[in-house]
Design a protein that fits this description.
Layout lengths: L20 H5 L3 H4 L24 H6 L3 H12 L14 H12 L30 H15 L5 H15 L72 H13 L5 H11 L4 E2 L44 E2 L10 H8 L2 E5 L5 E5 L8 E3 L2 E6 L5 H8 L1 H12 L1 H17 L32 H12 L5 H12 L29 H14 L5 H19 L22 H4 L21 H11 L4 H13 L22 H6 L4 E5 L7 E6 L5 E6 H8 L1 H11 L4 H16 L14
Antiparallel strand pairs: 1-2, 3-4, 5-6, 7-8, 8-9
Helix pairs in contact: 4-6, 4-7, 5-7, 5-13, 8-11, 9-12, 9-13, 11-12, 12-13, 14-17, 15-17, 16-17, 20-23, 20-24, 22-23
Length: 737
């Protein structure tokens, strides 16, 4: 894209890189901007929340004057400011792009990205080429944010501003749900890619010409580093609409959008506004993260006398609007796209774009800076994909002849785009939450809180059932540990472990799982399956604790519901299947990322701290929960009892560890220094608690004499956290996992 500053166009575990930490997380902010102030030196344990730990965002939002806020946002749309004039006198399209790009980083592979915490305020997203000049949109919102303060988060405000923009220009909106609590630092555990150059520096598409989507790295969705979706000029800048269609299908699928939703979003978004490339991109300064102190967080500042604003704005490098009515919802996008032939031209900034041949004057657009001037409309290569690709073309023709279907599809797709990472609908706040349950929200029927007698009798039946500690713990863990705090999917609520695809995952040992579930179903009485699965874990855990000689109760909170197959999008749950699970010592094949790093990633998605992860691994090992019953890491002669034997024996000074031949350093065996002979077998996920100094420091605490009961109590607390991670009905989810 030759020095341009951005773009106007909109599974499974993170396996990528060369196996090191850099491979897991890719390039970080200090790599891109080495001179940036290292504020995190003051927050070794995470950023402090200036609102205080007791701040309840849900309570604050519910006290918001929602009607007044929407009125102020509506007024802002046409309140053009001289320091950043509104195209056509209307900021609506600008705020749509801001909201789109805030939400559009979401990817299904690990649930990360999205608008849920307002990450667009921080690097790297505030300085991505694709987010060029959105720093101005956020500053335009500041007077509104300042006025309403704690009652509206930045994260909610970004999305609400986009909704109001669509409404104010006559477009369809399906609804809005608040509840996105702000954070105050960049999320550091997101892998954005391994490239060391941005899209505007010649980075090629991440999709291999031969392997296609399969070559797209790990959980990534964007086609090039620094993009939200695809390169609007085409893959790697190649103006080929069919290849662009290939890229669009791959990236939008990884963002939970099907082809119809992809067409609806693209066409609906491009019904409004324009792209900016009416100048020389080389005159623009650094992105916000690398800008001068005096710029006060503004980026891409032009050194030209005209200031690079209004008529002279350069963002993507592409110039012009898609339709002749850029501030009004209309049917014109598909009419102009399908009725005209197009030729490839270049913008004043040098970007490739497509222009209608022999365009009628009435189909030309007003100039953004002077409505008396008419200019040709344009299409990007990504837009041309909707015309040239047969599958996209069929959807485009459908929407062109059925505008009501287009309106409904766009409104629903926009709502999904903006809310996909929020988790269950119970987390939504505000008066505009749609009543309809959508399958991508993973709906779960409301559960009934069981009475104490029902719980006690069910516990007694489970205890007498013959189910072992290992079976009960493994089943409860398999059900609850699918939860990921990134997009609040998975977890025990709904008991989807008994439905496809989870019941058939290899990690869940389907044959044994089916037997345990059938037994629990016959014992549950008035309890839901979701509750009895978790309660079974409580029964197994309390027996393991008692057998170890301790008297520690395991908390249980019922009230979970059972989801049906009809309420479950089985395909969408496929991305939650672990390719590796250190908690169950499960690694069916060696992956390119180190096993211990995948362990950290899984723990992070569960919302666990280092001590919580450590105590859970150690406890699960001695409880006999390894996949397939393998003995690696058990380190105990008292399997099924909740002891600290894992830590005591792991750190014992009589062990000499050696990699097992042919295991590619994934499996290890210990011999006794004095007596000789093999003692224990382990995996990388076991030995890392002795080899890594930080993990060892925690492991030593649990191995110390006198801390045996502390270990049990800490395990119970961490276990209960995982079991209840998705209990948003108890008021948990708004503030985080």
């Amino acid at each position: 894209m030759d020095a341009k500053t951005g773009s106007i166009s909109g599974g499974g575990c993170p396996v990528h890189g060369d196996g090191g930490v850099r491979g897991l997380l890719g390039r970080q902010n200090r790599d891109w901007w080495p001179d940036a102030l290292a504020v995190d030196v003051l927050a070794p344990n995470g950023a402090a929340n200036p609102m205080g730990d007791d701040f309840d965002y849900a309570e604050a939002f519910n006290a918001l004057d929602y009607t007044a806020l929407k009125a102020d946002l509506t007024a802002l749309m046409t309140d053009s400011q001289p320091w950043w004039p509104a195209d056509y006198g209307n900021y609506g399209p600008f705020f749509i792009r801001m909201a789109w790009h805030a939400a559009g980083t979401y990817r299904t592979g690990d649930g990360r990205g999205g608008a849920n915490s307002g990450q667009q305020r921080f690097a790297p997203l505030n300085s991505w080429p694709d987010n060029g000049n959105l720093d101005k949109a956020r500053r335009l919102l500041w007077p509104v944010k300042q006025k309403y303060g704690k009652n509206i988060s930045w994260a909610d405000l970004f999305i609400l501003a986009g909704n109001v923009a669509i409404e104010s220009m006559g477009g369809p909106v399906f609804g809005f749900g608040g509840g996105r609590a702000d954070v105050f630092e960049p999320e550091k555990d997101i892998y954005w890619g391994s490239e060391d150059k941005w899209v505007n520096e010649g980075v090629q598409t991440r999709i291999d010409p031969d392997k296609g989507m399969e070559a797209l790295d790990g959980p990534l969705a964007a086609i090039q580093m620094g993009l939200i979706y695809v390169n609007p000029e085409g893959p790697g800048g190649l103006a080929d609409p069919l290849l662009s269609a290939r890229d669009m299908k791959a990236t939008f699928e990884r963002m939970a959008m099907n082809p119809e939703e992809t067409v609806a979003l693209t066409a609906g978004g491009h019904t409004f506004g324009k792209a900016h490339g009416n100048g020389d991109a080389s005159t623009l300064g650094a992105a916000p993260a690398g800008g001068d102190l005096a710029a006060m967080g503004f980026g891409w500042v032009s050194n030209q006398d005209h200031g690079g604003i209004g008529e002279h704005t350069v963002t993507s490098g592409i110039e012009g609007s898609w339709v002749n009515t850029p501030t009004t919802w209309s049917e014109n996008y598909f009419r102009l796209l399908l009725d005209y032939d197009y030729e490839l031209v270049h913008s004043p900034a040098g970007a490739q774009q497509w222009q209608p041949i022999n365009q009628k004057p009435e189909d030309m657009a007003p100039a953004a800076w002077d409505p008396s001037i008419k200019v040709p409309t344009m299409m990007t290569t990504a837009d041309m994909a909707l015309k040239m690709d047969p599958e996209f073309r069929a959807v485009s023709e459908k929407f062109r002849t059925d505008h009501e279907a287009f309106k409904d599809a766009f409104a629903r797709a926009w709502f999904k785009l903006c809310h996909r990472d929020m988790g269950p609908k119970v987390r939504y706040l505000g008066p505009e939450v749609p009543a309809e349950d959508l399958i991508w929200q993973d709906p779960v029927p409301a559960g009934t809180m069981p009475v104490g007698s029902d719980i006690d009798s069910a516990k007694a039946r489970i205890a007498a059932s013959g189910l072992t500690v290992s079976q009960l713990i493994k089943t409860a863990w398999a059900s609850a540990s699918t939860y990921r705090k990134s997009d609040h999917r998975g977890g025990a609520n709904g008991a989807r472990i008994r439905l496809a695809p989870q019941k058939d995952w290899d990690v869940n040992e389907p044959a044994e799982l089916a037997k345990v579930l059938a037994t629990l179903d016959g014992l549950r009485g008035a309890l839901s399956m979701a509750d009895v699965i978790v309660l079974g874990g409580v029964v197994g855990l309390e027996k393991a604790i008692a057998d170890a000689g301790f008297a520690v109760k395991v908390p249980f909170t019922g009230g979970r519901g059972d989801a049906s197959a009809e309420q479950t999008d089985a395909e969408s749950f496929g991305v939650l299947e672990p390719q590796a699970d250190a908690f169950r010592n499960y690694l069916p094949k060696k992956l390119s990322v180190k096993t211990e790093e995948l362990m950290l990633d899984r723990a992070a998605l569960l919302g666990l701290s280092v001590p919580e992860m450590t105590v859970l691994i150690g406890g699960l090992r001695v409880l006999g929960t390894n996949h397939g019953g393998r003995g690696h890491g058990s380190f105990t002669q008292r399997s099924g009892q909740l002891t600290n034997d894992f830590f005591v024996n792991l750190l014992g000074m009589t062990n000499v560890w050696k990699a097992v031949d042919g295991s590619d350093e994934e499996e290890f065996v210990a011999t006794d220094r004095t007596a000789g002979g093999e003692t224990w077998h382990a995996t990388r996920a076991d030995l890392v608690f002795g080899s890594n100094s930080e993990l060892r420091a925690v492991a030593e605490v649990y191995a110390e004499s006198g801390n045996e009961e502390k270990f049990v109590r800490d395990f119970v607390k961490a276990w209960t956290k995982v079991m209840n991670a998705d209990r948003f009905d108890l008021g948990k989810g708004i503030q985080g996992a």
